[in-house]
Amino acid sequence: MRNLLKSKKICKLIISIILVYTVIICISQEKKLSNYNNQKNYYESQKTALNEEKAELLEEQKNINSPEYIEAQAREKLDMYYPNERVYIAKGK
Length: 93
What we know:
The chain is rod-shaped, with a radius of gyration of 35 Å. It has about 90 residues and is mainly α. About 0% of the residues are buried. It has a domain at about 1-35 and about 50-80. The protein has two helices and no strands. It has helices spanning about 1-60, 65-80.
């Protein structure tokens, strides 16, 4: 009788340990899965932004030899202007 009670207690203890271990593993896996989902969302947003930038660059590449593009780049990046053109710079307060 005593051995039977002792064996039931041991069995309950083992089952309890296994249950606790299983819960801990499930929580750990859920945290990892959440982290992976967050990374996936981040990389998808990065991919979308890069695809938009790629589309803009391809559009710019199409216009790179046009006179309007060359003039705009000369004005913006090189501060070049036509010889008879006056440039006024407004100073803020």
